[in-house]
């Protein structure tokens, strides 16, 4: 998989940028497919990245539905920043999801802090038979090694393949 970043676009240029994005991503999907690579996109919330082209999870899903061969990164942190329920997102978008990412909400720290119920989220991921990796994209509160100690508490959810 290859994550294609869509860039930052001013609202006044959004319509023109949509056409350009569609042309560019169609070409990229074809080129990537020749090398057995799946292209994926994600929505980035407008607080963290103002003006990011793919502004909502619904928008990202729409692109994956319009462009055959384009996949979705379901980033539960960004979805939560849109005020979407991560469990509802996991229920609603499994067919489009090629990769899942997590981080604590709202601080984007370790996934087991703040408002999330991480055991329920991990159980929901398992219930949907998701077989891919779960990316942990966060800013550790106390440093990198200390920021991974939460994994010990959730080891039962980690598959060694």
User: What is the count of DSSP helices, taking H or I runs of 4+ residues?
Assistant: 6
- Which strands sit side by side, in order, in the main sheet? 1-2-3-4-5
Number of strands: 5
What is the CATH superfamily?
Divalent-metal-dependent TIM barrel enzymes
From the N-terminal CA to the C-terminal CA, the straight-line distance is 18 Å
The radius of gyration computed from the alpha-carbon positions, rounded to a whole number of angstroms, is 16 Å
Largest sheet, described in full? 5 strands, parallel
Low-confidence stretches: 156-161
CATH topology title: TIM Barrel
| CATH secondary-structure class | Alpha Beta
What is the residue-mean pLDDT, rounded to a whole number? 92
Shape: globular
Helical residue percent band: 25-40%
3D structure, described in words:
With 161 residues, the chain is of the alpha/beta class. The protein has helices spanning 14-34, 57-66, 76-81, 86-92, 118-127, 150-153, and strands at residues 2-3, 39-41, 70-75, 97-102, 134-136. The two termini are 18 Å apart. Helix 5 links the parallel strand 4 (97-102) and strand 5. 36% of the residues lie in helices and 12% in strands. Strands 1-2-3-4-5 form a five-stranded parallel β-sheet.
């Amino acid at each position: 998989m290859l994550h294609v970043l869509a860039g930052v676009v001013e609202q006044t240029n959004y319509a023109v940028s949509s056409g350009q994005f569609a042309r560019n991503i169609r070409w990229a999907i074809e080129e990537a497919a020749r090398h057995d690579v799946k292209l994926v996109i994600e929505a980035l919330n407008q607080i963290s990245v103002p003006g990011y082209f793919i502004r909502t999870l619904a928008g990202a899903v729409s692109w994956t539905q319009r462009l055959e061969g384009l996949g979705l990164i379901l980033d539960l942190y960004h979805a939560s920043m849109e005020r979407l329920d991560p469990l509802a997102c996991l229920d609603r978008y499994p067919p489009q999801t090629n990769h899942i990412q997590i981080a604590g909400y709202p601080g984007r720290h370790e996934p087991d802090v703040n408002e999330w119920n991480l055991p329920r989220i991990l159980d929901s991921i398992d219930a949907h038979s998701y077989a891919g990796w779960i990316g942990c994209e966060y800013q550790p509160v106390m440093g990198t090694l200390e920021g991974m100690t939460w994994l010990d508490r959730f080891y039962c959810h980690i598959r060694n393949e």
